[in-house]
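Minutes, methods subgroup
Present: GH (chair), OT, SY

1. OT presented the first of two proteins processed in the latest run. Sequence and C-alpha cells recorded below as shown on screen.
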Amino acid sequence: MDMEKVQMRQQVLMGHLTGFSTNPIAAHNLLVAPSVCMGGDGETNHGRAAESCNDDDVVIVAAYRTPQCRAKRGGFKDARAEDLLDPVLKAVVESAGIRPDEVGDIVVGTVLAPGSRRAMECRMAAFYAGFPESVPIRTVNRQCSSGLQAVADVASAIKCGYYDIGIGAGLEFMSENSIGWGPIDNPRIQTNQQVQDCLLPMGITSENVAEQYGVSRESQDEAAVRSHKRAAAATAAGRFKDEIIPVHTQIVDAKTGQRKHVTISVDDGIRPNTSMSDLAKLKPAFKKGGSTTAGNSSQVTDGAGAVLLMKRRMAMQKGLPILGVFRSFAAVGCDPAVMGIGPAVAIPAAVKAAGLQIGDIDLFEINEAFASQYVYCCQKLELDPEKVNVNGGAIALGHPLGATGARCVGTLLHEMKRRGKDCRFGVISMCIGTGMGAAAVFECGTNARSI
C-alpha cells in the first residue's frame, strides 16, 4: 500500500473516532460514519475496522419482508399494495416492543406507481398497521435502489438528530404497475447519446454488458441455476423464516370469480429443478442472437420489506438486540448504456468510505437484475462466489423494484447473525436504471461491541 493510500486510510479511521469523516468521498457519499475503538495497545486496527464503541451509531434492530410472489400469477396477484406494506410495518415495531408513536418518520422506496397515489397507499398502510396520525411517511424513488435508499435516508436523519427511531421500507406491486412508459417527445434527445441511452430498455443494457465485457450465455445460465438452487436450499432449511412475515390475503379464481382467503408465507418464484439444459432451450428475450433470456433475468415480482433503525444508545436503553450497524452508503453514476455495471463502481466507493477493503467483506447481497451484469460485477471485483448471494438472489427470489433494497437488508443481516463471529461485515448493492449503482456496508450486531 503506497503512502497516499495509507494516509487516506488513516484519515478515514480518525474521522470514525471523532464522529466526522475527513475523507472527501465519505463526506459526499457516506451517510453514517462507523466509529472505531482503540485496541488495548493504543494502536488502531488497520486490517479491519475495530469494534464499535459509539452510542451514536445507527443500528438495525428489526428487518422483515413479505414473501416475494410472481406478479400477475403469484400469491399476491389479487392483493392491494397497501396490504403488503401494512404487515411489515407492524412487524418491525411489534417485534422490537416499541410504541408506533415513537417512530419519527417512515420512508418507503417505491418505483413504478404514480407518485401521489403510492404516497397515499403508504399512508393508508401506516394507519392499517396502527401508527397514529402524528407519525409522518414519505416515498423515495431511486429506481432499483429505492429500498436501500430509504434505509440510508432514515439512517442519515437519525445520525443528524432529526429523530431517534425511524423505519426504512420498500414496496412494489408489479401485478398492478408494470414497467414501461409512453414515448418522450423531445427533439433534444437526438442531440445527446447518453440521454438516448437513458431510454434504452433494461434488457438491451443487459445485452450491452454481455457484449462489451464478454459475459457468455453459459456463464449467465450458470448464475441463474445457482441462484435457484441456493434459494431452494435456503427455503428447505428454513433460513428465510426469520425474515418473512406471512401475509393474509385473498386469491380470485380466474374461472369462477370466487375469492379464497389464503396466507402466503413462502416465496413462490423459486424453481428448484432449474437446469442448464432447460435454460439452454430459452430464446433471447430482448435481442435476436442475444444472450439475455427470461431464465437468466430477475423475475417481475410483488413484495414489501421494512427495517427499523435507531441510535445505539436508544437500543441499549430499551434492551433491544442489535441485528446490525449501518456503516456507509454510496451512490455512483456510470454509463447508462451499460447501467448494470453499477455495483462494480458503487461497492468500492462504499467499502472505502467505511475504512475497509473488499477483502474485509464477509458476505455480499448483489441484486441479480440480469445474470450478465451480476456475473460481470462479481468478476470485476474478484469476489469469492461462496460469499455472494449465498441464499440465492433476484433471479430466483424476484425483484420487486422498490422493495429489493429493504429485502436485502433483512436477508443479509439474518444470515450474518446465523454465521456468528466469523461474519462481521456485509455489503448490499444493486445497479440502477439510467446508469448508477448503490451500495451500503453493514456490520453484524453480534460482532460489534456494545457500550
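2. SY then presented the second protein from the same run.
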Amino acid sequence: MAERTVVSWTAMISGYSQNGFFENALLVFSEMQKAGFKGNQFSYGSALKACTSLKCLKRGLQIQGCVQKRRFVRNLFVQSGLLDLHAKCGKMEDACQLFYGMGERDLVSWNVMIGGFSGQGFAHNAFQFFQEMMTEGKIPDCFTLGSLLRVSFGGGGHKKVTQVHGLIIRLGFESYNVLAGSLVDAYSKCGSLQCAYKLYRNLPTKDIISCTALITSFAREDKHSKYALDLFKEISSMQMRMDNMILCSILNICANVAELSLGRQIHAFSLKCDNNDLAMGNALIDMYAKSGEIKDAYMVFNEMQERNVISWTSLIAAYGKYGYGHEAIALYEKMENEGMKPNDVTFLSLLFACSHNGLINKGSELFHAMVSKYKILPRAEHLSCMVDLFARGGQLEAAYNLIHEMNIQTTSSLWGAILGASNIYGNMHIGEAAAKHLFNMDPEKSVHYIALAGIYAGAGAWENAWETRKLMNKRSAVKDPGYSLLALQRRK
C-alpha cells in the first residue's frame, strides 16, 4: 500500500488475531507503533486478545501501559480485553482491581471474572460474583452458566448446581446441548450420580459432552462400573464418535474389573483411529498390567513415542506386583539413564518389588537414593515397605529402629507389618511393642490380638496368650466372618 492508515493497520492486526495468528498480530502491532501510528480501541483490543491467547502477560502489561496513556483507558471494549488478559494469566487480584475500577460493566466483564475464578477452581468467588451480577440486574447467558457449572462446589455442591439448573430452565436454555452436558458433569462431580443419569436419559439429543461427563463420573467409583460399561456399549451402538477421555475412562474400569476382552477391543479401536497419545498409552499399560498381561503392557510401553513418569512407574509397579523384582529395578535404571526423574510413587513401587522378592540390600539402596539423591520425604507407605522388607528378611531390629529414626506419623499398617513379622520369627519383645501401638490405634480389630496371642503361644507363655484373648473379648474385637463374593453373585 502506498499509504497506510490506522484503519488498515488495525484490519491486519484484527485479522491475524481472529484467525489464530497471534504472534503475527503482535508483530504488526509493534510495526504500527514504530511507524508512528497510535492505535484505536480495536487495534488495542485485538493485540490484547493475542497476548491473552499466548498467555504473554509481560507484553500485555506493556500494551496496558500504552492504553493508560491514551484516551481508551475508560473504553469498555479495551477494559474487557485487559480483564481477560489478567484472568486468563491467573492474576485474579489484578483483574479484581481493574473490574471494580470500571465506570461501566457489561455482561462480558462479569463473564470474564466468573470464568476466570471458575477456571482456577475458586468456586466461592465465582458464585459470589454471579450473585453480585444478578443483584445488579444483569441476566446471565450460556457462558455465565457454563462457567459456574464447570467449577467444583465441594460439600454444598448439589444445592448450588440445583439452583443453576433451575435458572437454566427459567431462562429457556435447557435445550442447549453444551449446558446439558455441563449439568450432567456438575451433578456427577458433587456426587449426585442419580440426578446426572436421569438428566442424561431425558436429553432429547445425546452428544459426546454429556456421554463423556457421565462415563468419567461412573468410572471414578468402582461400584458404578457396570453402568459405565453399559453406557459405553450403548453409545458404541449409536456409532457416536468417541474421544480419548471416554476410552481412557473405560480402560480404567477394564483394569479394575478384569474386563480384558473389552480392553483389547479398545486398544484395537485406538490403533485404528490413531488415538495413541500419552494418556491412552498410560491407560493401556495400567489395564494390561492389572490384568496380569505384563508382555502386552511392555509392548505398549515400548511402542509409545512419548513417555512420562506415569508410564515408567506403571510398568515398574506391574513388574513388582507379579514378582519380577529384577526387571523392575532394571527398568528404573533405564529410566534414570534416559533422564526421567522418578517420583515418590515410583520408589514406592520399587520398594514393594524389593520387599516381595527378598532384595534387602537393593531396597535399602533405593530408599537412601530416594531420600538423599532425590530429596523425597518418605511417607508412611514407604516406611511400611521398608519395614516389610526388613521383616521378611528377619531383620526385625532394623525395621523397629527405622520407625523410630524417621520423623513421621506412624500408621496401623506400619505396626501391623512389624507385628506380623514378629509372629513369624517369634520375637516377643518387638511384637509386644507393636501390639501396644495397634491396641491404641484400632482397639476393636481382632487380628492384632490373635497375632500377639500367637506370639505368646509360640514362646510357651500360655497365661499371656489367655490374657490377650480375654482382652480381645472384653473389647468386643470379634473376628469378621469369611465370605465369598463369587458365591453372593451366584445367589443373585
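Chair's summary of item 2: Residues 483-492 have pLDDT under 50 and may be disordered.
Next meeting: continue with the remaining queue.
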